[in-house]
Amino acid sequence: MREQDRPVVVEVWTDLGCPWCYVGKHRLQAAIERRPDADRFEVRLRSFELNPGAPREPETIESAFIRSHGGDATVVRDAERRIQALARSEGLEFSLDRLDANTFDVHRVLHLANEQGLGTAFFSALQDRFFAGTVDPFDPDALVHVAESVGLDGDRVRQVLAGTEYAADVHADRAEGAALGLTGVPFVVVDRQVAVPGAQSVETYGQVLDQVAAKVDVRG
């Protein structure tokens, strides 16, 4: 395979309940879809729990933030409304009634899905429905249903959820991201050449893709 014909891998460290991951994901996808060679770019999702110590029992966004960072509910709600307005201005649904809980099991299922080439489809479907307020990702049955909707075997997902498979993979993703300079998510690494922290604009993502694609073509 010629160098310029190989896929350009775009790795995205992310967490399910991170609003900026949600917005950034759609901006990155828009930047890719604008390109005539969009099918050249392969997005791979990597795990990074923002709050590994979060309880498994769902709680409100306000309660989760205050428990972890302090403050009061009014400040949290105002911040949520600002992000909601921004998301909706970009055509994205954004419910203020989402719940928050530990995402470790979601990440374990993501690794199962990644093995089958369905990681991006699974996580994206789950995150979109979560922010739209139409699914509870912390309900195992709901999680299985979304997994099945993108082609995963429901019984296999239940088997993973009942055990500890892929736990080491989740931890390894976090460690690898940290080694690359990650301190929060979203964190995008394009072709292991350029790292892009935070939710950037469509234009900024596009510039990075241009930059990396040009380097690949020159090497080819």
UniProtKB/TrEMBL annotation:
Gene Ontology molecular functions: isomerase activity
Signal peptide extent: none
Residue ranges constituting the DSBA-like thioredoxin domain according to the UniProt record: 9-207
Keywords for the protein's UniProt record, in alphabetical order: Isomerase
InterPro entries membership: DSBA-like_thioredoxin_dom, Thioredoxin-like_sf
The organism of origin for this protein: Cellulomonas iranensis
Pfam families with a match to the protein in the record: DSBA (PF01323)
Protein name, as recorded: DsbA family dithiol-disulfide isomerase
Disulfide bond as UniProt keyword: no
